[in-house]
Amino acid sequence: MIEVNLIPDVKQELIQARRMRATVVSISILAMIVSGVVVALLASYVFGAQTLRGSLLDKSIKSNFAELNGFDDLPQMLTVQNQLEEVSKTHADKKISSRLFDMLSVIVPAAPNDVALTTVKMDTEEGTMTIEGQSPAGFIAYEAFKKTIEATELHYYQKGNDKDLIKTSLGTDIVDGERSYGEDQDGRRVLRFSLSFTYDEALFDSESQRMIVQGPQRRNATDSAVAVPETLFTAPANDEKAE
């Protein structure tokens, strides 16, 4: 079979161009339809689904709020929750007040300059400590007590640094208080005294690790001490009887 192509080349090119144009138009129309569908879906989500979702959330919030208001002890519950959040911070800022007794067992002189304490007051805001005590050895024991405080040092490591040992004085600015003679519970004549000094804040700071109170004659590793000597404190003496 013999076919004879009687269509000139120009006509063939025109037909191919028309076919190409039809294809492009069809693809464009399909793309517009798809884009329109996508825009319609997005619009329905934005103005429909999100609005519905927001409405449901508002209802949930109102419902939960009404439920919370139904609790009579709501303020207490919220306060407890807030306190729980502050536990970690409070733990980090806490003071190791138990070191006070270990420090006292170091600064009280040994015999023959026996000193018994009657009152110890600590002002954490001012960083001062006031000690009241008495001694049958009189002013000699009192001066020994003062000099012991002046000579006592704190040896410790800062938390996170186990290499650099820090040494600092226990107290500074020692101020004499009232002094007078009286009679203790055993009928002995004793000197009653009081003094105050500014203590180093590292003594009670939880950041001070492996703390040691180093006195001129003794020392105490405060983080390991477990007992307070019974002879450290005594009842205050009475005024001397007038003769």
Task: Enter the CATH topology name of the largest domain.
Answer: Gyrase A, domain 2
DSSP helix fraction: 40-55%
What percent of residues are in strands? 25-35%
Count of separate structural domains: 2
If you compute it from the alpha carbons, what radius of gyration comes out, rounded to the nearest whole angstrom? Answer: 44 Å
**Shape, per Cα inertia axes:** elongated
Report how far the terminal alpha carbons are from each other.
Answer: 160 Å
Q: Do you know the CATH architecture of the largest domain?
A: 2-Layer Sandwich
Q: For the residues shown, what is the average pLDDT? A: 78
**Spatial strand arrangement across the major sheet:** 1-2-6-5-9
Largest sheet: 5 strands, antiparallel
CATH class of the largest domain: Alpha Beta
- In DSSP terms (H or I, runs of 4 or more residues), the helix count works out at 5
N-to-C series of helices and strands: HHHHEEHEEEEEEE
Unreliable stretches (pLDDT < 50, length at least 5) are 221-230
Brief characterization of the structure:
The protein has 243 residues and is α+β, with helices and mostly antiparallel strands.
Tell me what the structure shows.
This protein is α+β, with helices and mostly antiparallel strands. The chain has 2 domains: 86 residues; 145 residues, General secretion pathway protein M, EpsM (Gyrase A, domain 2), CATH 3.30.1360.100. 42% of the residues lie in helices and 26% in strands. β3 and β4 form a beta hairpin. The longest helix is centred in the first third of the chain and has 61 residues. The protein is elongated and about 140 Å long. The termini are far apart.
